Amino acid sequence: MKTLIKILTVFLFCTICKAQQTEVSVIKYEDLEKRIQQEKAELLVVNFWATTCAPCVKELPHFMEVNNKNDSNPKFKMLLVSLDRLADKERVLKFIKNKNLTAEVVLLDDIKRMNTWIPRFEKEWDGNIPVTLFYKNGMKVHFNDGEMSKEELEKTVSDNLQ
């Protein structure tokens, strides 16, 4: 019995360590665009958020539930794009740990060119966050402006994974 408990403890520890990032990649718009185009997942969910955005923080637990439900599916990938300032990178890392974010998080350090890259992602995007884009086989299939409920998120994912 003690051996079983030790094995389960080690497994749980490894799972937790694997699930959380210890570093956040800092990228520019072009890198993110290339990353989206090269993603192998059939459905890619890209959520733009910030630690200082109350609706963003409110919806993130729903995103983690959906991510955890689908993370073993090779056709599914979730990417959280933080729009926090580069100077706040440590706060973002602490936030990832405290909120137990299991999806990959990148920090988009390209605020000065927002008026250039925002319309390239979506013409209807006015710059407010949260915003979530859904790509199916590299093509954008859905744009959600504002906070998503768990039900909306689950339905959009389900509809596009079929």
Automatic annotation (TrEMBL):
Gene3D superfamilies: Glutaredoxin. It holds the Pfam family AhpC-TSA. It comes from the Bacteria. CDD domains: TlpA_like_family. It comes from Chryseobacterium lactis. This is TlpA family protein disulfide reductase. Residues 2-162 form the Thioredoxin domain. PROSITE patterns: THIOREDOXIN_1, THIOREDOXIN_2. The keyword Cytoplasm does not apply. InterPro entries: AhpC/TSA (IPR000866), Thioredoxin-like_sf (IPR036249), Thioredoxin_CS (IPR017937), Thioredoxin_domain (IPR013766), Thioredoxin_ResA/DsbE_sf (IPR050553). One of its GO terms (molecular function) is antioxidant activity. Keywords: Redox-active center.
